[in-house]
Amino acid sequence: MACGKCRAVCPVFAVEGSETSSARGKLKLLAAAESGELAYDAELARLIGDCLGCRMCVESCPQGTRVQELIFAARERIAGRRGRGFLSLIILRYLLPRRALLASLASAVGRLQAVGAGFFGTFRRRPGDHLSSSQRTQRALAGVYRFLLPLAGLSPRLVPPTLARRPFGLDRGEVLARGGPDAPRFGFFVGCVVELAYPDTGEAVIALAEILGITLVAPKTQACCGLPAWGNGDRRTSAALVAANVAAFAGAPLDGVVTACASCASFLRGHYTGPLADALTLEELLVRRLDDFPLTRDPSLKVTYHQPCHLARYLKVDPAEGILRRLGDYVELPERDVCCGGAGSYFLKNPDTAARIGERKAENVLATGAGVVVTSCPGCAMQIEASLARRGADVRVALLGELVAESLARTTSPPGRRGSRRAATGSGP
User: Fold this and answer.
1) CA–CA separation, 318 and 312 (whole Å)
2) What structural domains does the chain harbor?
3) For 216-350, where are the alpha helices, taking DSSP H only?
4) What's the pTM value of the predicted model, to 2 decimals?
5) Are 41 and 82 in contact, with CB atoms under 8 Å apart?
6) Taken in order 174, 406, 374, 331, is the CA torsion positive or negative?
7) Three-class DSSP category at 302
8) What is the pLDDT of residues 210-266, one digit of tens each?
9) What are the backbone dihedrals phi and psi of residue 107, each rounded to the nearest 5 degrees, phi first?
10) Distance, CA of 327 to CA of 302 (rounded, Å)
11) Are 292 and 211 in contact (CB under 8 A)?
12) 231 near 242, Cβ under 8 Å?
């Protein structure tokens, strides 16, 4: 059967419109390559790389074809036959396994971005103070990016993410929160994007653990979960990262593991053993203990929610709406579970397609009239920030744990000390 129902739901097909951008077209290409009709060349690698891995086609397929598994396997074969580029080898095999080095490099970039934003921001209209610090930095550097990126051979539609001046795990101990002697002991799988770009989300997890009376431990030897390597066909590096993380979290007995990254949670559950194989998303932990949080609804907060693909179609987890309704005026986002176009490193390798997919997401966000759009995946947050930045929209992008922690801070802090942790730890001006 080759009905083409995948074409009706594929975000890439929606903006590119070519048969090869659909799942049906890609599977035909792979069949031709396996039979020898097509070569495993650069063009085939490009076409197979033009897939988000969002699984929307899988849900619509009458046969239940597991398209993303075939695509990821094809990327491995292509890399095996054609080899890997130098930059890919450096990132996947050298940087990702070295958490401290990656954090130091990110910090250097984040500090440079902050200096640039401080200078060039004086020549631009200041965005609303309610925006995240990373969004304010993006807005300040928007003109610089549009000028410099084409000089480097990159798309002017690419809006680079803002990295943290001080990554989450830099110079931090392993025990992040201490409960009582009989307190549950949870491991915290940080994830690369929280580590390098959203340290406030890591701080929020600590704050929530303290309220719950949980002992929270983040092993220093943990590394990338392995999903970026897996998605790019580098099973060797992915397996090495899996083994390293299993060893890192095996050092002490744990009652569970929590992560604030939907993509990490999905990969941990599908490819790990031990406590990491049962990792909870932060949303799941919040729902289990929601009655323990003294949340106060803010009627002036109008919020909407983008559901990441790894929650919607991989883990099939969707507890965020109930939490957000307790925080403010919740508005349903049209196509809330449709991929935003970020898809890990997709927005870097396919910036024009990712930007066009992101435009639709930005339009839907603006249609809600919400002042804040929340998501549960830091990779999605990066993409949505970029999409809104292209529109010059003053809509804040926030990760769910951070918004909950801010609500709790308003409820429990003395009036003179209220405010977001973002002001102290953010990466922008």
Assistant:
1) 7
2) 5-82 (no CATH), 294-425 (3.40.50)
3) 227-231, 235-248, 262-271, 282-288, 309, 320-325, 346-349
4) 0.90
5) yes
6) positive
7) strand
8) 999 999 999 999 999 999 999 888 898 999 999 999 999 998 789 999 999 999 999
9) -60, -40
10) 9
11) yes
12) no
Q: How many residues does the chain have?
A: 429
pLDDT of residue 143: 85
| Predicted pLDDT at 418 | 40
pLDDT at 97 over 50: yes
Q: From CA 138, how far away is CA 39, in angstroms rounded?
A: 41
Asked if 311 contacts 57 with a C-beta cutoff of 8 angstroms, the reply is: no
- Please name the residues in contact with 4: beta carbons below 8 A apart, sequence gap of 6 or more: 22, 24
* Tokens 């898809």, residue located: 343
Q: Which residue has the tokens 């699984």?
A: 55
Instruction: Indicate the residue type of 405.
Output: A
CB of 56 closer than 8 Å to CB of 339: yes
**Other C-beta atoms within 10 Å of 3: how many?**
12
pLDDT band at residue 89 using 50, 70 and 90 as cut-offs: confident
Provide the β-strand partners of residue 396: 372
Residue 328 pairs in a beta bridge with 298
Cβ(122)–Cβ(413) under 8 Å? no
CA–CA separation, 66 vs 62, rounded Å? 11
Who's near 72: CB < 8 A, 6+ residues apart?
A: 53, 230, 231, 233
- Looking at residue 162, what DSSP letter applies? P
User: Are residues 420 and 406 in contact, defined by beta-carbon separation less than 8 angstroms?
Assistant: yes
Residue, of 36 and 238, whose pLDDT is higher: 238
Confidence band, pLDDT 50/70/90 cuts, at residue 88: confident
Query: What's 15-58 look like in SS3?
Result: HHCCHHHCHHHHHHHHHHHHHCCCCCCHHHHHHHHCCCCCCHHH
Summarised one tens digit per residue, pLDDT across range 349-404 is 889 999 999 999 999 999 999 999 999 999 999 999 999 999 889 999 999 999 99
Q: How far apart are CA 352 and CA 315, in angstroms?
A: 29
- Our separate counts of H helices and E strands in the chain read 22, 9
Tell me which H or E stretch contains 109.
helix 99-120
What is the distance between the alpha carbons of residues 354 and 362, in angstroms, rounded to a whole number?
A: 12
